[in-house]
Amino acid sequence: MSDKVINLDVKNDNLGRQVVDTVFRVHQELGAGLLESIYEECLAIALKKRNIQFRKQVSMPISYEGVDIPNAFKIDFIVEDSIILELKAVEKIIPVHEAQLLTYMKLSKIRTGFLINFNTKLIKDGIKRYRL
Fold first, then answer.
1. CATH for 2-131, among 1.10.287, 3.30.519, 3.40.1350, 2.40.128?
2. Which ranges of 31-121 would DSSP assign to H, the alpha helix?
3. Does residue 54 contact residue 78 with C-beta atoms inside 8 Å?
4. Coil, strand or helix: which one is 43?
5. What is the CB neighbour count within 10 angstroms for residue 66?
6. 112-117 vs 83-88, strand pairing mode
7. What pairs with residue 131 in β-bridges?
8. Is there a contact between 76 and 105 (Cβ–Cβ < 8 Å)?
9. pLDDT digits over 89-132, tens only?
10. Could you state, in order of their start, the residue ranges of all structural domains in the chain?
11. What is the mean pLDDT of residues 47-70?
């Protein structure tokens, strides 16, 4: 069983590197200062060109006191059903942004996530990886 976990982590590490490289390319082309929605569309184009499978604006349900809430939250990107990308274009990442990603990861049972803030001079300063 531990071999499967290791293999999954290796797969996620390789995929994570591809995703980060794609984010770098988008930021290199566009720079900082645009709306999150623009980065989302451009990242989708870039991922598609690299043949990386993804879904964007994925509605996730929750249940509260026995009542299902079908569109409780939306995940910006789920990449190959194994990595969540939460995009931001803000002056500064604050704890609520991290909590948002961690909540998405817990509720979706996806163990790897990236919080990406495109509003940085150097995109390496705007990417943070999380693992559950």
1. 3.40.1350
2. 36-49, 95-108
3. yes
4. helix
5. 5
6. parallel
7. 112
8. no
9. 999 999 999 999 999 999 999 999 999 999 999 999 999 999 99
10. 2-131
11. 95
